[in-house]
Specification:
There is one protein chain. The protein is an alpha/beta fold. The longest helix has 17 residues, at 27-43. The two termini are 34 Å apart. It is globular and about 65 Å long. An 8-stranded parallel barrel has the order 1-2-3-4-5-6-7-9, surrounded by 7 helices. Helix 9 (245-256) crosses helix 10. It has helices at 27-43, 65-74, 93-106, 123-128, 140-151, 180-188, 203-213, 237-243, 245-256, 275-284, 293-307, 321-334; strands spanning 12-17, 48-51, 80-87, 111-116, 172-176, 192-194, 225-233, 288-291, 311-315. Helices cover 40% and strands 15% of the residues.
Amino acid sequence: MSISSKKLSDTRLSVLDLVPILAGKTPADSFKKALELARHVENLGYERFWMAEHHNMPGIASSATSVLIGYIAGGTSTIRVGSGGIMLPNHAPLVVAEQFGTLETLYPGRIDLGLGRAPGTDQVTAMALRRDLRGSGEDFPENVAELQSYLAPRDASARVRAVPGEGLDIPIWLLGSSTFSAQLAGILGMPFAFASHFAPNLLHTALKVYRDHFQPSESLKEPYAMAGVNVVAADTDEEAQRLATSLFMSFLNVIRGKAKPMQPPVDSMDGLWDASEKYAVQQMLRHTYIGSPKTLKEELQAFVGETQVDEIIVASNIYDHTARLRSYEILAEVFDNKVKAG
């Protein structure tokens, strides 16, 4: 399909929920809102609902990712639920195989396993997670292969088996913000997702590397690429810009090394950041789309045309829950998804 002919309606649409903890609220509130969001986007026809593993972050409640996946899958009925991703260096591959084998057994045909090779936290916390900090991700390919072996068809002679897990059809994705996982995903014939919602610099390079190195596998015959973006949608550009200040403040705190819950929106960021901080936030959020349906349709169409991705996974970090639900509703309309009855 040519760049000019590919449309938003040709692109699958999914959700990345960081399960944010809001100022003045608790993780219990975040879990309840996550399930409400999952049910909402399921009714809107979204493809999948992913959550990401983070640790020691007061503003993110998704540390026990596999537990949350079970909670969301148990409260929905059709949408795929998975990890975007599980940080494999933090876990023994066998444990991951058993956890996701259990999830797939409970919710057959609905579980995705996305894998990342970063710890998803700082080094001190990574040590508390019992990681071997002498490595730097070079053993990621071996760990992926080991995990794949546990999910392969049953081998009665194997000394170590994942029960449940073995023989289950669980799609494994590789996630990344550089070319390392892109190349590995291509060589192994796996779907690939790029974290352009916070690390946009190598998006186009990584997609090219993935496609150039792709080798068909038993599970995937052609390359399948997903890209992450941030979207703040509202009925007017002005309201969307105001709602987006919560996202800006969250990334400003990341740059400053301050961990805080998500803050309510403000009328203006003036006085909250200096010029260099504003530039840094804007660079990290380069693939962030803010505005009314008309604005978003034009900008997201350009993004799809430039990247030719098969799927977009969207993080909408909005403080007000009703506004967040509305943002995903507007986005579904922009992508020409048919809203399901229900």
